[in-house]
Amino acid sequence: MSFQLSPEQEQLKAGARAFAEEHLRDLAAAVRAEPDPLTRAMLARPVFEKAVGHGFLKGLVPAAVGGAAGSGVDAAIFIEEWATQSPDFTISFAGPLIALTPVYEAGTPEQVQRFVAPFLADEGAPLAAMAFSEPGGSANFDAEAPGTGTTTTATPDGDDYVVDGTKAWASHLSGWDGDGPDLMTIVVRAPGGVSLLVAEREHLAGHLEVEEHYDLPGLRGCLTSRVRLHEVRIPKANLLGEEGQGVALTRNAFVPSGASIGIFAVAAMRGAFELAHRFALTETRGGAEPIIAHQAVSDVLADAKGRIEATRLLTWRALDAVMAQHPSALELGLHAKVFGSETAVEVIQRLVQVVGVTAYDRHYPIYEYLDEALAYPLIEGSNIGVRRRQLQTLLRTPGWDPLAASGMA
Ligand SMILES: Cc1cc2nc3c(=O)[nH]c(=O)nc-3n(C[C@H](O)[C@H](O)[C@H](O)COP(=O)(O)OP(=O)(O)OC[C@H]3O[C@@H](n4cnc5c(N)ncnc54)[C@H](O)[C@@H]3O)c2cc1C
């Protein structure tokens, strides 16, 4: 086992970095300047089409079903390079990562082929959304009465289910034009319990009403909305697995994306570190020498660098386990999510203090990284409401071995 990047991974890094520097940097600047959430999300479409043309969308789909996804470390390298320039574009582009995961797990061969097909395209801007979260809460989506749990209902009617409810937060619930994405995996309450249904675009058009586009404090290019689904007719042939399988499928759907938050955290820390380090090397702030000569300043930078490296390695390990479907994937993925996201907030908050008051001006870009990082403990299942509870369940599992995940048992 080596941690050296292979020649292919060096090439992947260079390709992802070149695309990000050529297209995502300017997009991020344009998004920053645009106040309206819908307008700024639409700025991404031409870049989205370019990324599809370069084959990056296929790179999110496993090779076993016709895509070109590589290893977990490959995924980490790619995400870090893109997210360093624009995490919001990266999150928006990666919709299929969550929405298609339950299709791979529980779909019939016919369903897999049909649902994956739009995302193997070489052109266009196909969108997939995982419609899980609801405005009234989703941490307890599996709760039964007296809780409400998932409130979106699927009522059987002949060969179809009729879906009614309100979904929120997922990227691109509204699609590019308000008529929905190309594919929407919907968490519903069916007669047999929480279940997953896949809606295709023709089922959604005319039955989806956008109630609000959220105006996010960070990740501002992500189009997250609250949408009402009314009388969406979805063929029973689009049920994934059996009725009642939805709780497990939903939890599993967020394992890869949860682990990837560790790398989004690295990208934010990397950007903030670069700014604070340069500031410390070049600014004297009226003193006789650059502020890095002060031990206190240097200590913050050194500690930050160590924590960035630790988060990157943990997340490489987690994503490697996820892609290899290793039994430790859930545990390592949860640590990458929780440790990575909270480390990023702490590290960037300290790096801001290295820069001092100059940082407290929007023209100096370090605060953007803090705005981004503040999202990571909340999204992909909040650390308090979802992720630490999953860790608690693991810790309480009879026979759980603290050395197993590392392979050191
Ligand atoms: C940019 C962005 C992209 C997103 N993408 C998606 C997506 O693709 N699909 C999707 O469905 N959602 C998406 N979301 C929503 C996101 O995944 C949230 O993490 C998810 O909705 C869960 O939020 P929550 O855990 O805060 O739940 P809530 O139910 O709103 O809980 C709120 C808080 O209550 C407390 N709490 C609730 N229940 C418990 C409990 N049992 N134990 C302890 N504490 C509890 C916790 O403090 C928790 O943080 C996105 C959000 C953003 C901003």
Short description:
It is built from 14 helices and eight strands. The protein is an alpha+beta fold and 409 residues long.
Strand content: 5-15%
What gap, in angstroms, lies between the N and C termini?
18 Å
Oligomer: single chain
**Broad shape:** globular
Major sheet, described briefly? 4 strands, mixed
How many DSSP E strands?
A: 8
How many separate domains make up the residues? 3
Q: Taking strands numbered 1, 2, ... along the chain, how are they ordered across the largest sheet?
A: 1-4-5-8
| Number of helices, counting only DSSP H or I runs of 4 residues or more | 14
pLDDT < 50 stretches: none
Q: Topology as H/E string?
A: HHHHHHHHEEEEEHEEEHHHHH
Radius of gyration: 22 Å
Average pLDDT across residues?
Answer: 97
Bound molecules: flavin-adenine dinucleotide
CATH class placement of the largest domain: Mainly Alpha
CATH superfamily of the largest domain: Butyryl-CoA Dehydrogenase, subunit A, domain 3
CATH topology of the largest domain: Butyryl-CoA Dehydrogenase, subunit A, domain 3
Structural class: alpha+beta
